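Recall the central idea of this unit: under ordinary conditions, the amino acid sequence of a chain determines the structure it adopts. In this exercise we apply that idea directly, starting from the sequence alone.
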Amino acid sequence: MDVSDTIAGQLAARLLADHGAAVTLLRRPSTLVGASPAMDLHLNHTKSVQPCPTGGWQSALGQCARDVDVVVVSDHGEAAIAAGLAPHALVAVATDFADQGPYRDWHGSELIHQALSGSMHYTGLAGRPPLHGTGNRAYIAAGLFLYVSLAARLLARPAAGAVGAVGAVGSTGEIVRVAVHEAAAAMEQNFAVQWAYSATIAQRGELNRPKGRIRCADGWMTVFAMEGRLNELLTAVGADDLVDSPPFSSWSDFMRDIPSAFARIQERARGRSREALLQAALDHRLVMSPVRTPTELRTDPQLLSRDFWRHAEFQGRKHLVLGPLWRPASYEPGAARDTSGGVPAALPTPDRPAGGTAEPGERPLRGTRVVDFTTAWSGPLATRILALLGAEVLKVESASRMDAWRGPADAPTATEFYPNGEPGDRPYNRNAWFNAQNLDKKSVLLDLKTDVGRRQAHDLCRESDLVVTNFTPDTMSRLGLGFDTLREINPSLVMVEMSGFGTTGPLRHHRAYGQTMEAMAGITALIGYDEESGPLGSGSAYLDPMGGLAGAAAAITALAHRDRTRQGQYVEVAQREAAMSWIGDIILDSLATGADPVPRGNAIPTAFPHDAFRCAGEDQWIAIAVHTADQWTALCSELGWTDWARDMSLAETTARKAKAEEIARRLSEATREHDKTRLATRLQRAGVPAAPVHNGRDLFEDPQLRQRGWFAALTHPEAGTHEYAGLPLEAAGRILQPSAAAPLLGQHTADVLESVRSA
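Accordingly, the structure predicted from this sequence is:
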């Protein structure tokens, strides 16, 4: 039963409906804050939607409590009520902030959460206000984390076939909580661990890494230059004559003068079309993709070839909707949807195998073994989530082709990722970003190009429940580790393959980096200051953790399918397609109107002021979001603007926007000399949504996260003791803490291989 009126709650319930649960949405008279018809369609088209009865959702739940396994609500008070009415059920709730800590009474919004997360600080151009991004990404992240938590608990709960015996946990139901603030922080935790290792802060602005945008004849491209591929990149843009000339004569020359290099690339690219450059990227294995707008996605050849777009009946009409975030074999969205008009009974669930259950305080994936063939960010984040939930994760590594996030084997140039800026003799064991994403895992060193290495990998898979990979499509099959081979070895094995663009279609082998996938998902086109400066996209590779969340959710869902059917399953996560759901409402609205939104900085239609304003100190900012008349009055009163506080003509957002220049100027003058954190705290106490725009240091020192036990101090044998950021996953009301630092390369090889040989 979904009685929530939050984006996060309704998304979590929709994912349950997508993958077989019979979900009823009881629509209350109150409307979803910030909702549009497109958002309603996107979040609820696989549910049975009914009006809330006269007696309220509490009355409806009381009448059918024994038939409900999950109740999704909107706040902590409702969660307590639902837990009392349905003591056997899981009660799910996503709120802006946790109900403890200094932010517990703060007002949240997308702008506020992105400011606190560290993401906003890193997005935008140096010297200009930082950008919060687009859509409702913080709330979508919270919805996915909530689904992961629910699916893991449902997987772990004992079941005797009868719905009413889904594992009573006492006099009240178990409450599964996620704070949107923490979900947003989890998406950008690399900034905090970088500060913990080297006391350095990632800087905002373009061209401080070998990536950028180029404007071509019919739009924009995003480009990530690669060592060893500069000549091919120059050929693609029609600049063969620049090969071997400064700054392209060597990789070190290029890295020393990235802005100049990209300026010269830009000059030549103006005469090329996006499709010609995309074809060159495919031909030469370049990391380069066109920036697709939302309306262009409808006719995108890759999406059409994969039959991505679907149609759904919703509220008496047929609508175009996005495809799924992940695709199990023979997937049919909303297969168990009930349209009979009553709150449906849950699907019957067979008994879990012995040893596969968990009490509320335990980690629900205890007893699950995962073989991890992943690299970089998205795949390792997916398996890190599984490890934190209790799974044993065996990270298979190669000495000749190490995980990209271990960094160079020697002499790395980017020293900010190492303890005190010192790479050491074995830098691949000391990289902050690798060590942050591989907590609680075991490293097994295999040479998969040899018969012995493949045989050892087969042994691991024979004794495991799940395989996760984010290699290029066909790589696993070439290594003799494709799903058809592995299921002969282990018929109950689940395999999740996290490709960039999908395992079929013309882009199946296109190089997939976070920036290139984000560009083709329609997200990059929506982030920027204006049409003239063009699309900037997110500062970090935000799409990578999007893919990681989808991968973890897909894995737990597939394990549940395996437990129900006793059959293994192959699941595909096309990360670009999964990311499109994060802006699904924007895409559907654009397709309905035929018009694409254009970048407008931090402006949104429903709030003003809604922006970042400079504070005391270098590159220090405060985010302020005024959505209501009461918030506007509170802002004016707190800043001493008595004239505007009494001016009722400014109560409406449209009226304030008519005086936008004057309000922005006055507000900029008012914030300039203030400490960003102290001012944000003052405004929040007055009832105004505000937040300091956190950088990596601020994120590491955040008092709310500190009080919540977000950071865990772990000692790594070569990197030393550091604090690592957490994830918004709880057990018995507490944030789950990792128990082991990331592994040394090959640290557990002998022990793991011996254990599977003796099994």
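The two ends are 43 Å apart (CA to CA).
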